[in-house]
Amino acid sequence: MPKPKVIGQPKTTEHFTLGINVMADLLAPTLGPIGGIVANQRDVNNKPELLDDSATAMRRILNLGDPRMDVGAMLMRSMVWRVVQRAGDGGATAAVLARAMYREAMRMSASGINVMRLSKGIELGVARAVAALKAQARPVAGEDELAKVALTVIREPDLAAVLGEMSYLLGADAHVSIEKYVAPYLHRAYHQGANYRAQIASMYLYTDPVRKTAVLPAGAIALVDGKLDQLDQIVAILDSALKTDAKSLTVVAGSFSDEVIGVMVRNSRGAANSKNGNAEKDKARKLTITGVKFKDVGDARREAYDDLAMLTGASVLGRAWSKPVEMAGPEDLGRVVRAEFGGELLTVAPERLSPDVQEKAAELRTKLARTTLDDEARPLLVKRLSAMTGGMGVLKIGTDSKLDREVMAQNAERALKVLSAAQHGGVAPGGGAAFLHCIPALADVEAEEDAAFGVEIVRRALAEPIRVILENAHVPSSSVIMDQVEQAGPSATYDVLDKRVVDAYEAGILDVADVLSTVLRTASSGALMALTTDTIVYHKNPEQAFTP
Amino acid sequence: MTIILSVSNRNGSVWAAGPEGLFRYEGGELAPVPQPQENLYCCCAIHDRVLVGGLPHGVAFSLQDGVEWQAGWMDNVEAPVVTLAADPQVEQSGVILAGTDGGGILRTANRGSHWFTSNFGLRSYSALALAWAPSAPASVWPRWEAVFAGTEEGIYHSPNGGRGWKRSESEEAVFQTIAVDRDFHRTGVVLAGTEGDGLFRSVDKGHTFTRVPDAPAQINALAATPEGWLLSDETSLWTSQDGMSWQPVAGSAPALVLLQMHDSVIAGDEKGLSVLA
């Protein structure tokens, strides 16, 4: 087994500095509206991939070919990844902030200041700056501001406008499913009510076989958790539906036997009956019937039954529940305004939302508030909440190249995370100005001796994002402009396109307060890790990972 | 006595609809046009066709000014269509919205051949009034397609041409008529009239509506005019320059529908149509 190589100070600092600088140099030019593009040469046969977001640019780098740089570079990669996973945006800003903090800290430590006390001061400074960011935040005003926030994440105006609109209509905890198409395409659709991945029990149960959809007007719904394979079971459900005077019946079950499907088809209005010369008999039939099976399994399926029962007022019938199917009565059926199946999606619009539903929605919102944006439990919670509160959106995007399609979908997902954070935590002046406006709040942080230098490190680092943005836009005299922005008040920023100090809210140059807080916290944590590391162990063949 | 509930204009040619049927307004007279619905509530004339909606349900359209009619495919919605509103860019987009009493809002993107429910965000499925904002200038981003819907419980706005709706902040009321400022993209003003709870005004592009003090309680018709605003309650017409302070028009007759056309306003009432100077 090859022996690992161990190095200590001052080599450790030297190596960290190399890697941190390389990654920050790579990402810094992407900051701001006039930021550059990172060209990634994948191989000699393909044209370079042009990237303008830090997460993807970082993801493409697995090593830099020089082990001395790799340790610092991979620390930055991990930090940027974490920021983007948590907040959806801000990777490049985090890299710039982390480098600024690390550089200043190294300078101070070289002059004999205690690193651990310096770290304490950095933590104090960051905590105060985060509080100042929260104090600056204003609630997002509407679809205009949401679209403008989306445009800061993805530089595609059409997609940004659609995402802003979707976030506005779907709310802070939007449930959006992304569909990818193989040609340039951008569209969106909204499905009202509770939506579940499902499969139709039989092609004979479509109301429109050409479009492969089943649309049922106001009527009843039966929920069966298990097999529906006995004739007396379906007869009990049909009898119950007729007693409620429903015009339609939607049956959700684990599976349907052929006999049961036969009974459903023969008793349903429309569908296949009238095509066989049974038009007269069809008139006598009172119900339009369809049957679907949930595609989700395990907890997701159980929760879908629970939620649908609560939404429609139905009882869940079946072995594991209180009542066997063959004992079903009218009181066990739920009511829907409309049920629709198409494109592997069952959409149920409940008749009215009961207080129980509103209570459940509040409970889900509380649970969601406790999760971070990258929490694995979050998608299911968002889905359940959307069922309780209104519905979901479908974003349909397409490009000619598969790679571009994937990048576009990832960008859309990132932007949706940012928009969610914007609706929850509000927006602050963009273009790095929000960090700049935090600086006065650091003046009265109580820190003693060396810790005060830590606060000073944060103070200096907070000016770095706007400085880099101005530099990227080739704006001269950046320090003069930063002074002007500070003096113009807490809502001011610099518009690098119009080359003037503006009100950020009027100009729509906005950042999301929660994203900025995450960026600052994660950047300081990365800088502190590098700052407090004294020894590096190099392995001959280090493991490579696509995810940090 | 011909009751007129809906008026539509196509290049100076005026169409009117009411319980007695569909009419063409020519030379100051209402000329009946045969149509297939039992009882009409609304009509909408666009560049290449005339559409009608009413009882029992559905929308019919004619490409030959009423000579022959076709039924639109209605996405299984069997509710009376009470209002129709065409996108200002309907010639290019083909988008028209239909409000129904009980089935919500339907949207077509092929000028009435196929209608699909578009109820996302609505809490009430009785959509009594629909009104589009003028098209946004090409230089504006994001270029929203703003449209408003009055329902039995509140007023809604849609930024995307009726694909999805968001309830505007307003009191709960039956909103039965809406008018959008002709300079909407600069002023953001929208007025909404209710069945008996007064007039409401928005200055933020329809996001919030506040009650207009001293306005009539029952607003049957509303119109934005070059000089300001016009409304009708159950007794007379009222005018306003800013939508806030209203004065009754002396000697005027009440209207059930008002339509601004060039330099005049067409008023539909229980006795037919009249042109207001």
Question: What's the layout of helices and strands?
Answer:
The complex is a heterodimer of chains A (548) and B (277).
Chain A: E1 5-7, H1 11-27, E2 38-40, E3 49-51, H2 54-59, H3 67-87, H4 91-110, H5 115-136, H6 143-153, H7 157-170, E4 176-181, E5 185-192, E6 194-200, E7 213-216, E8 219-228, H8 231-243, E9 248-256, H9 258-267, H10 279-284, E10 288-294, H11 298-312, E11 316-317, E12 334-342, E13 345-350, H12 355-370, H13 378-389, E14 391-398, H14 402-425, E15 427-429, H15 433-438, H16 449-461, H17 464-472, H18 478-487, E16 492-495, E17 500-503, H19 504-507, E18 510-512, H20 513-531, E19 536-538
Parallel strand pairs in A: 4-14, 8-9, 8-11, 9-10
Antiparallel strand pairs in A: 1-19, 2-3, 5-14, 6-10, 6-13, 7-12, 8-12, 12-13, 15-18, 16-17
Helix pairs in contact in A: 1-3, 1-4, 3-4, 3-14, 3-20, 4-16, 4-20, 5-16, 5-20, 6-7, 6-14, 7-14, 8-9, 11-13, 12-13
Chain B: E1 6-10, E2 13-18, E3 21-26, E4 29-33, E5 39-46, E6 49-55, E7 59-62, E8 70-71, E9 81-86, H1 90-93, E10 96-100, E11 105-108, E12 116-117, E13 127-132, E14 147-151, E15 155-158, E16 166-167, E17 175-180, H2 184-187, E18 190-194, E19 199-202, E20 210-211, E21 221-225, E22 228-232, E23 237-240, E24 247-248, E25 257-261, E26 264-269, E27 272-276
Antiparallel strand pairs in B: 1-2, 2-3, 3-4, 5-6, 6-7, 7-8, 9-10, 10-11, 11-12, 13-14, 14-15, 15-16, 17-18, 18-19, 19-20, 21-22, 22-23, 23-24, 25-26, 26-27
What can you see in these coordinates?
The complex is a heterodimer of chains A (548) and B (277). With 548 residues, chain A is α+β, with helices and mostly antiparallel strands. Helix content of chain A is 49%, strand content 19%. Chain A has 20 helices and 19 strands. In chain A, the strands form six sheets. Chain A has a six-stranded mixed beta barrel with strand order 6-10-9-8-12-13, surrounded by four helices. A three-stranded mixed β-sheet of chain A has the order 4-14-5. In chain A, strand 16 and strand 17 form a beta hairpin. In chain A, helix 6 crosses helix 7. Chain B is an all-beta fold and 277 residues long. Helix content of chain B is 3%, strand content 45%. In chain B, strands 1-2-3-4 form a four-stranded antiparallel β-sheet, with no helix packed on it. In chain B, strands 5-6-7-8 form a four-stranded antiparallel β-sheet, with no helix packed on it. Chain B has a four-stranded antiparallel β-sheet with strand order 9-10-11-12, with no helix packed on it. In chain B, a hairpin with a 7-residue loop joins strand 7 and strand 8. The model of chain B has no long low-confidence stretch (mean pLDDT 95). At the A-B interface, helix 6, helix 7 and strand 5 of A face loops of B.
